Amino acid sequence: MGPLETMKKHYQHRDLSAREWKAKGGRVVGYLSEDVPEEMILAAGFFPFRISGDPWGGTEEADKYTEPFYNPAVRSIFNMLLAGKYDFLDFIVIPHSSDAILKLYYHLRDVQKINPLLKLPELYLFDLLHTRFWMTGLYIRDRVRELKEKLEEWSGKEISKESLSQAIAIGNENKMLLKKVTALRAAEPSRLSGVETLQIIGASMFMLKETHNRLLRQFLGEGDLPARDGVRLFVEGSDLDHLQFYELVESFKATIVAEDHSWGNRYLDDPVDPSVDPLEAIAERYHLKSPSPRMHSIDRRIRYCVRSAVEAKAQGAIFFFLEWDSAPAWDYPDQKKALEEKGIPTLCFDMQKYLLSSSDEDQLKPKVEKFVETIRTRSTAG
Amino acid sequence: MGEERRVSDQGGRTVKQLRSAIEAAAYQREWFRTTRQRLSDGEPFALANADTPHEIFLAMDIPVVMTQWWSAIIAAKRLSSEYFNLMNEKGYQRNLCRYCSLPLACAMDPHPEHAPWGGLPRPTVLLARLTCDAQTKIFERLAREYHATFFPLEFSAPTSSYPRWWEKIKDHWDEVIEPHRLDLMVEELKALIRFLEVTTGKTFSHTKFIEVMELVNQQEEYFRKTRDLIAETVPCPVSLPDQIASTMNPQWHRGTQWGLNQAKMFYEEVKERVDKGEAVCKNEKIRLMWIGPGLWHNTAFYQHFEEKYGAVFVCSIYLSLAADGYARNYVYNPLRALASRHVTITEFIYHRDWLVKEAILHKVRGAVMIVAKSCIRPVGGGVGNMFTIRAFEAAGIPVLPIYSDVVDAREWKDEEIKFQVSKFIEERLSS
């Protein structure tokens, strides 16, 4: 199996590597979102595993405790944790990334009180705050130190500066290699689809980083990839941890050349500075990295969106908002205006289901097709 | 005893019976008028969310309005639908936060003078704790609309569940609240004070601040006595709309002599009614609790079930939190005590065990909980209400969730909701 197929396999079977690691006596720390320093988990000797939802997995267990108006991707994670789908996790780190994710921490804590027999991994709240102020940076630095102490308690050994530096180097190499992958997608003509790229990036969070780096090097060394023709699109909005929407869009002779969410381009921005104290560098990186929708401020969010779309030479942008995921939706009017001022037309799908049904797809497809066709016509005429 | 009648959003009538409630409403209007006059001379003016310590502004003689207060006024004047439609037309989706965003929707109106009481004076500084995903978004846009500076305060996540916080919070708040949360807020408040001093030319008066803290404690003590009196008196002596008006108007002015006087008047009026045996509903059969923010666009709803069922709403979060959650012994460090009041306010107001405690104290038989799907904050908010229902039902108190919005009248289906509550009373509460 080639490197791309291997990464696709791990994207599809997300627990594969972690379960193998576990079978060999290793321990796995699950975490949510892009806000947990995975370098620290790696340095502590654990397998860092990013927890994701499953749109096909139902919500039966979550329904016992939450109503449907809850970010559906996080609700799916809640369901999977209650249903034992993540039984290979030894510990879970939940960051204060968004209301929905913070709420997950409280929900899990509450469920454990209601049902003490429920087996869940030990939970740890990582309180990453949201402004770029120095005072917030100091607070985050303290939380990073506490996380280090917690990981040391879990592993029973100290995390040395050397092991942290090594983990940072591995993570930075991963981001650098992923940048090369996304450059292939953003090239003119594009050499990779959005669907493929999302799988390659996503696999990084389900595999050991060193293994993923090896696969990336192999993949990048395989030589020229065939050129893709089609309309170049940028995706803005909610985090998308599965492929359904990308597959739908790219079925219309279009390529998603870049996006602004944490399962895509935003994951590989901002390496950790290897030239300073590793813990300080980690604290600063996770404080000041590319802005997620929850972060202060709107100007940074707009600039990031527009810069990403322009750099990828996107011809159009599609906003895709999951239902009950309001933080990115607040930015929509300003981002739309800013993109259109740059000559990038936009299309918006709001309040979308986590799992698009056939009828949902039937509603989306003609709109995407028309949007792509309009851009193609305009491009040909121009 | 005066009486003011006002037609509600959907045809009902709110009957204010307490002088403290009527006077408070008049005072609010007058406060807005005089404040606007004062600001025309170039004085600073702050707009802040309710989670922030407005005591800081009092100690600097800077007038302040809370966004939730302003939301309630706009909704009560039946203008929310118009403003939300305007915001939606500007591209903001309909499912976004409503309660805290109504002032933004109002600020987007090109005719600000159409707003209640001649409109909000243009704020020069905006202050919010980032207690949910929406606060940053709302306040940054408010800053843009008003050309004002936004000063955000972080929302550190609680790690404790604050068991039985109400028993220790007044005197031992430093044992209840995590030190790192207090440390951050104290530092942020110091930064805020310096920022205000630099930008307004005013000085934070420590003696004034101590006076404010003392007045707040005295005011909240009256609320505690009033809450206890209402809780133990059957039939209930005061309607929920009167309770809310007589509590929240002074609360928005807590730390002032007027706030203290009003709280005292409220207590004395309730005491007088209790002594005379006066009741909201002589035929009281079922005592109800209202869980969630006040139904500002339709306060008459609370009294709709009195005549037919003898069902009376006797308590809500407002008077109860004033009674239990605000007072602080501040002897050694008043600024840290102030931080302790605000750093946990969201956690306390939706604390399930505390809500159940209040329900039992007020001898309620059932509770109606308003669930706003658009409120996504991590503590409280729409999501998570099932845990609250479980806690109440474990205490033998059924809860009816109703899905609507407290300020967006477009979401209110009056007949349907009245039917739901009637059915709840008939099937689950009537013995």
Descriptive terms for the model:
heterodimer; A: 382 residues; alpha/beta; Rossmann fold; four-stranded parallel β-sheet; 16 helices; B: 431 residues; 18 helices; 10 strands; 51% helix; globular; disordered N terminus
What's a concise summary of this model?
The complex is a heterodimer of chains A (382) and B (431). Chain A contains 16 helices and eight strands. Chain A has 382 residues and is an alpha/beta fold.
Descriptive account of the structure:
The complex is a heterodimer of chains A (382) and B (431). With 382 residues, chain A is an alpha/beta fold. Chain A has a domain at 10-158: Rossmann fold. Chain A has helices at 3-12, 16-23, 38-43, 60-63, 72-82, 99-114, 134-155, 161-186, 194-203, 209-220, 244-250, 265-268, 278-288, 298-311, 326-341, 358-381; strands at residues 28-31, 47-50, 91-95, 122-126, 231-237, 254-260, 316-322, 346-352. In chain A, helix 15 (326-341) links the parallel strand 7 (316-322) and strand 8 (346-352). Chain B is of the alpha/beta class. Chain B has one domain. Classes of the chains: A alpha/beta (382), B alpha/beta (431). At the A-B interface, helix 6, helix 7 and helix 15 of A face helix 6, helix 8 and helix 17 of B.
Class derived from helix and strand content of chain A:
alpha/beta
State the helicity of chain A in percent bands: 40-55%
Q: Would you identify the CATH architecture of the domain at 10-158 in chain A?
A: 3-Layer(aba) Sandwich
The H/E string of chain B reads EEHEHEHHHEHEHHHHHEHEHHHHEHEH
Cα shape of chain A? globular
If helices are DSSP runs of H or I spanning 4 or more residues, what is the number of helices of chain A?
A: 16
So what's the CATH class of the domain at 10-158 in chain A?
A: Alpha Beta
Taking the sheet with the most strands of chain B, its summary is: 4 strands, parallel
Q: Which strands sit side by side, in order, in the main sheet of chain B?
A: 4-3-5-6
Poorly predicted regions of chain A are none
Spatial gap, N to C terminus of chain A? 43 Å
Strand-residue proportion of chain B: 5-15%
β-sheet strand percentage of chain A: 5-15%
Average pLDDT value of chain B?
Answer: 92
Helix content of chain B: 40-55%
The end-to-end span of chain B amounts to 36 Å
